[in-house]
Amino acid sequence: MCRSAGFEPRLGRQAIEWQTVCALVEAGLGVSLAPASIRRIRLKGVAYRRIEPNDARTAVAAAWRRDDRNPLVTRFLEVARGEIPTGRSEADP
Protein backbone atom coordinates (compact mmCIF):
# COMPACT_ATOMS: atom_id res chain seq x y z
CA MET A 1 0.00 0.00 0.00
CA CYS A 2 2.84 2.38 0.79
CA ARG A 3 4.59 1.77 -2.51
CA SER A 4 1.37 2.28 -4.45
CA ALA A 5 0.94 5.57 -2.57
CA GLY A 6 4.40 6.64 -3.71
CA PHE A 7 6.62 6.19 -0.68
CA GLU A 8 8.73 3.57 1.06
CA PRO A 9 8.30 3.42 4.85
CA ARG A 10 11.29 3.33 7.18
CA LEU A 11 10.89 0.26 9.37
CA GLY A 12 11.82 0.57 13.02
CA ARG A 13 10.36 -1.37 15.88
CA GLN A 14 8.19 -4.27 14.83
CA ALA A 15 5.74 -6.49 16.69
CA ILE A 16 3.65 -9.54 15.91
CA GLU A 17 0.76 -9.19 18.37
CA TRP A 18 -1.72 -6.41 17.60
CA GLN A 19 -1.92 -5.35 21.26
CA THR A 20 1.84 -4.68 21.16
CA VAL A 21 1.58 -2.86 17.81
CA CYS A 22 -1.09 -0.58 19.26
CA ALA A 23 0.97 -0.01 22.42
CA LEU A 24 3.94 1.06 20.27
CA VAL A 25 1.69 3.51 18.45
CA GLU A 26 0.34 4.76 21.79
CA ALA A 27 3.94 5.34 22.95
CA GLY A 28 4.61 7.48 19.88
CA LEU A 29 6.95 4.94 18.31
CA GLY A 30 5.28 4.70 14.93
CA VAL A 31 2.17 4.02 12.92
CA SER A 32 0.69 0.84 11.53
CA LEU A 33 -1.60 -0.44 8.83
CA ALA A 34 -4.06 -2.76 10.54
CA PRO A 35 -7.28 -4.63 9.86
CA ALA A 36 -10.53 -2.90 10.87
CA SER A 37 -11.07 -5.37 13.72
CA ILE A 38 -8.13 -3.84 15.61
CA ARG A 39 -10.24 -0.73 16.27
CA ARG A 40 -11.62 -2.62 19.26
CA ILE A 41 -8.29 -2.19 21.05
CA ARG A 42 -8.94 1.13 22.77
CA LEU A 43 -5.83 2.96 23.88
CA LYS A 44 -5.54 6.62 24.90
CA GLY A 45 -4.14 8.69 22.06
CA VAL A 46 -4.48 6.00 19.38
CA ALA A 47 -6.64 6.99 16.42
CA TYR A 48 -7.93 4.61 13.76
CA ARG A 49 -8.64 5.88 10.25
CA ARG A 50 -10.09 4.07 7.26
CA ILE A 51 -7.79 4.10 4.23
CA GLU A 52 -9.37 4.48 0.81
CA PRO A 53 -9.49 2.79 -1.56
CA ASN A 54 -10.34 -0.10 0.70
CA ASP A 55 -8.89 -2.83 -1.51
CA ALA A 56 -6.08 -4.14 0.70
CA ARG A 57 -6.34 -7.85 1.48
CA THR A 58 -4.34 -10.35 3.45
CA ALA A 59 -4.34 -14.10 3.90
CA VAL A 60 -5.66 -15.63 7.11
CA ALA A 61 -4.88 -19.16 8.28
CA ALA A 62 -6.51 -21.45 10.82
CA ALA A 63 -5.17 -24.58 12.50
CA TRP A 64 -7.09 -27.32 14.26
CA ARG A 65 -6.72 -30.99 15.11
CA ARG A 66 -7.82 -33.04 12.11
CA ASP A 67 -9.81 -35.48 14.27
CA ASP A 68 -11.49 -32.81 16.45
CA ARG A 69 -15.27 -33.37 16.43
CA ASN A 70 -16.11 -30.53 18.83
CA PRO A 71 -19.22 -28.78 17.43
CA LEU A 72 -17.70 -25.38 18.24
CA VAL A 73 -14.70 -26.16 16.04
CA THR A 74 -17.01 -27.33 13.26
CA ARG A 75 -19.12 -24.16 13.53
CA PHE A 76 -16.03 -21.92 13.61
CA LEU A 77 -14.67 -23.54 10.46
CA GLU A 78 -18.02 -23.17 8.69
CA VAL A 79 -18.08 -19.45 9.51
CA ALA A 80 -14.40 -19.00 8.58
CA ARG A 81 -14.97 -20.69 5.23
CA GLY A 82 -17.95 -18.45 4.55
CA GLU A 83 -20.41 -21.34 4.55
CA ILE A 84 -22.52 -19.60 7.23
CA PRO A 85 -23.17 -15.85 7.11
CA THR A 86 -22.06 -13.96 10.22
CA GLY A 87 -24.60 -11.15 9.90
CA ARG A 88 -21.78 -8.61 9.52
CA SER A 89 -20.57 -6.90 6.39
CA GLU A 90 -17.00 -6.04 5.46
CA ALA A 91 -17.84 -2.40 6.15
CA ASP A 92 -18.57 -3.11 9.83
CA PRO A 93 -15.81 -1.85 12.11
Automatic annotation (TrEMBL):
Domain of life assignment: Bacteria
Domain LysR substrate-binding: 1-82
CDD domains reported in the protein's UniProt record: PBP2_LTTR_aromatics_like (cd08414)
One Pfam family, short name: LysR_substrate
Keywords (A to Z) from UniProt: DNA-binding, Transcription, Transcription regulation
Annotated family: Belongs to the LysR transcriptional regulatory family.
Protein name per the record: LysR family substrate-binding domain-containing protein
UniProt source species: Microbispora hainanensis
